[in-house]
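queue> holo job accepted (manganese (III) ion)
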Amino acid sequence: MKNKFIILAFSGLLSLVGCKKDKELIEVTIPEPEKIKKTTMGNPADVKAEDEEGAFQMLRLPYAYNALEPFIDAKTMETHYSKHHVGYCNKLNTAIKGTDLESKSIEEILKKLDMSKSDVRNNAGGYYNHNFFFEILGTNGGDATDEVLDAINKDFGSYEEFKKQFSDSATKLFGSWWVWLVKDKAGKLVISTTSNQDNPLMPKSEIKGTPILTLDVWEHAYYLKYQNKRKDYIDAYFNVINWKKVNEKFKAATITE
Ligand code: MN3
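queue> job finished
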């Protein structure tokens, strides 16, 4: 905003004084186009739930919108977080307003979900899934490490084999889905896919368990940068997984009913 004001003031002055003081006017510093562009990118910290008293609020994005470039571009991150994600948060608050769900955690809501109530199902799912997705991304990407790597080696044979299976699952999907790495009832790591905003916590999930990793394969998660090249987005994703966070989730995951 400030930069724009400087330019407008300059133009106005120029039209008032004509050409007499051109030399003085040239002294005014006009921001470089690159700097103007940067100021137009929003700040994730400014994204708030519409209802500030609502049961669910936006979790702070743990990095800047451009932090995951070149793998996930800033515009996609901004749109995803400040338009799509906040939309799920707002609609979830509306859907549960005045019900006993307002006092429950998001996990409790999902585990005991009435699957016929699509407004709660879609928006509680969207809220949880996106919080999860943004949390396990980060700039310190690389291959899996620590305890979760040991478990991946044990259950998939190798990290490369896990990566191949996860990537294949994401590539062959048709429509809007999520791919998950889940610690199942037996404590084994398995890959699962869920459509729309469903997730492995919900009743009737194909594989129930505790998610430790996820990938959003809705088109809004990649289309601005990758268009129809979903496989390129999936490959890029493996460069921005915060395995330290995934390992924390793996260690904290309890075996669920
Ligand atoms: Mn999404």
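queue> Residues 1-21 have pLDDT under 50 and may be disordered.
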